[in-house]
Design a protein that fits this description.
Bound molecules: fructose -6-phosphate
Helix content: 25-40%
Radius of gyration: 25 Å
Strand order of the largest sheet: 3-2-4-1-10-9-11-14
CATH class of the largest domain: Alpha Beta
Strand content: 15-25%
Number of helices: 18
Structural class: alpha/beta
CATH superfamily of the largest domain: Aminohydrolase, N-terminal nucleophile (Ntn) domain
Shape: globular
């Protein structure tokens, strides 16, 4: 979704626009439909340029105009919410005098009333966005000092924002403000970089200050002030993780990285002798967790699928009643929360608006809030009482892959921790630890199916519908497999329980409607085999994903993919891999834009 970058240096830097554009490109993965920037030009005023489509279109436009850029500069990628995709609606937006420029992430909910009032006072609007009201409000409040004008304007806004503002009337600063939309300031040697996402600053500095809700930062040429004094933190990700490193797409790179990313999630967190997990992020709530008798897991999309697995895990191994909800639904239903309830939010980015809203709702009703997230310092990490980082490194591909398997690995750690606090026998804990320690190696082995999967994608190319079926621990994997092919190959797919087939969905089965059946040798194996029989009896092609050595399935399925054998509740980490690869190769054959699928954004920061 939308991204913000700002740059200001000690002395008017002619590299300002180039540095800003390079940082903005690092946010491309989030998804956007237009881009723009506003910069101080040596000719003595602010220049604003915008372009629909890729950032390269904006670059071309700037290149053709012979500007003399200096700084400050603010830049933005827009993912349309209010107003269609066009140059006029791209950010930055300006006031009537075209002297105040605003880049904004978030939504201003009361903008219609504000706009009407400002128009009544004589302001002239040139876009259909909610953001433009902010520029006009700042114009109205300006009395010589930009931060004061921003502060007064914020008092009129209802909604969410991450803001970057510059003005030709007070040109030696960027003013930034945050409410429910992330912003951080990167502290480099001779300059500051403002950004909505650490990816934008990582090539310049590891020292960052995250803004908290309600804070305004005034970023000058050699110092910056913020309402509350804050300690600089270190970003843990290595810069190289933002590159494709020879892979044609980030998605494939991230699928292939899974042995290492899962290893990182588990590293230092397993205690083999005690059959337990050591999770520093839960230390502060360890006693309270003993009283918890109900867990709600919330997340969106892929993160929700991980949550569905957590539901099976917590109930079976920790004996805690658990329900998983789409975060977007959670606070609109009558959930029964009290102090013995925990909400566990799962999110790769830690910035998904629906998930954050669920956390806030649960906290306001007295529940313990916990999180599993990847991004250190994200809003989710800061707003939950306790949590676990997945530590799988930046995920750039819009289709979530390695974040998912790390979320499932983190859930397995949670399960051990909660289970051993309760009824889980020592031997069961030890067995789970042993299997988790083997997991990176088993993932590596599973990835060897890549060539076979590519051939299968070629064989099934041209089919326009797919079923994904699984039971128990592999039902969420059926959902995840269906989502992956849907989002990157734009193919119709349904993910369902094998057992539900005969209650209606079987009507769709024909020789044109293949089914991908996840059928490891687990406690529901025989049941899944019956479901495959039902499909074959109606002429439907079947690709089976099963445990190594289980050759009997070959007489039933048209194609068989083998995964290593492990304990039932950990099979999903392996069984999802062929499905990720199938979606990937199928989408490549369809000529799709793998890392930036249409209509999607990496981090969904609006509700
Ligand atoms: C699917 C996908 C999305 C995200 C969802 C939640 O491949 O990427 O479904 O999983 O938007 O995002 P996070 O995990 O950042 O909260």
């Amino acid at each position: 979704m939308c991204g913000i970058v700002g740059y200001i240096s000690k002395g008017n830097d002619e590299r300002s626009v180039n540095i800003g554009i390079e940082a903005l490109k690092r946010l491309e993965y989030r998804g956007y439909d237009s881009a723009g920037l506003a910069f101080w030009d040596r000719s003595g005023g602010i220049i604003c340029q915008k372009a629909v489509g890729r950032i390269s279109n904006l670059e071309n436009k700037i290149g053709q105009n012979g500007f003399s850029p200096a700084d400050p500069v603010i830049l933005h990628t827009r993912w349309a919410t209010h107003g269609n995709v066009c140059e006029a609606n791209a950010h930055p937006h300006s006031d009537c005098t075209r002297d105040i420029f605003v880049a904004h992430n978030g939504i201003i909910e009361n903008y219609p009333a504000l706009k009407e009032q400002l128009i009544g006072e004589g302001h002239v609007f040139s876009s259909g966005t909610d953001t433009e009201v902010i520029a006009h409000l700042i114009e109205k409040c300006f009395e010589g000092n930009l931060e004061e004008a921003v502060r007064k304007s914020l008092g009129c806004l209802v909604g969410t924002y991450g803001l970057a503002v510059i003005s030709g009337r007070d040109p030696n600063k960027i003013v930034a403000a945050r409410l429910s939309s992330p912003l951080l300031v990167g502290l480099a040697e001779d300059y500051f970089l403002l950004a909505s996402d650490p990816s934008a600053v990582i090539a310049h500095t590891r020292k960052v200050v995250y803004l908290d809700d309600g804070e305004i930062a005034v970023i000058g040429r050699s110092n910056f002030t913020i309402i509350r004094e804050k300690k600089a933190e270190e970003i843990e990700w290595a810069d190289g993780q933002h590159e494709k490193e020879g892979f044609p797409h980030y998605m494939l790179k991230e699928v292939m990285e899974q042995p290492e990313s899962i290893e990182q999630t588990l590293k230092g967190r397993l205690i083999p002798e005690a059959g337990n997990a050591k999770l520093g992020g839960l230390d502060s709530v360890e006693q309270r967790l003993r009283q918890i008798d109900k867990v709600y897991i919330v997340g969106c999309g892929t993160a929700r699928h991980a949550g569905l697995l957590g539901e099976y895990m917590f109930e079976e191994y920790a004996g805690i009643s658990t329900r998983t909800d789409a975060a977007s639904e959670f606070r609109y239903r009558k959930t029964l929360l009290d102090k013995n309830t925990a909400l566990l939010a799962i999110s790769q980015s830690g910035e998904t608006a629906d998930t954050l809203a669920a956390i806030r709702d649960a906290r306001s009703r007295g529940a313990l809030t916990m999180g599993i997230t990847n991004v250190v310092g994200s809003t989710q990490a800061r707003e939950t009482d306790a949590g676990v980082y997945t530590r799988c490194g930046p995920e750039i591909g819009v289709a979530s892959t390695k974040a998912f398997t790390s979320q499932v690995a983190a859930l397995a750690l949670f399960t051990l921790f909660l289970g051993r606090q309760r009824q889980m026998p020592l031997e069961t804990g030890r067995r789970i630890v042993r299997e988790l320690l083997r997991m990176p190696e088993m993932v590596e082995q599973t990835l060897q199916c890549d060539r076979q999967i590519k051939e299968l994608a070629e064989k099934y190319r041209g089919f326009e519908n797919f079923f994904y079926l699984g039971r128990k621990y592999n039902y969420p994997i059926a959902r995840e497999g269906a989502l992956k092919i849907k989002e990157i190959a734009y193919v119709h797919s349904e993910g369902s329980w094998g057992g539900e087939l005969k209650h209606g969905e079987l009507a769709l089965i024909s020789e044109d409607f293949p089914s991908i059946c996840i059928v490891p040798k687990d406690s529901v194996y025989e049941k899944m085999v019956s479901n495959i029989e039902e499909i074959k009896a109606r002429g439907g092609p079947v690709i089976a994903v099963t445990s190594e050595g289980n050759q009997e399935i070959e007489s039933l399925a048209d194609d068989v993919v083998y995964i290593p054998d492990t304990i039932e509740f950990l099979t999903p980490i392996l069984s999802v891999i062929p499905l990720q690869l199938f979606a990937y190769h199928f989408a490549v054959l369809c000529g799709c834009d793998i890392d930036k699928p249409r209509n999607l954004a990496k981090s969904v920061t609006v509700e």
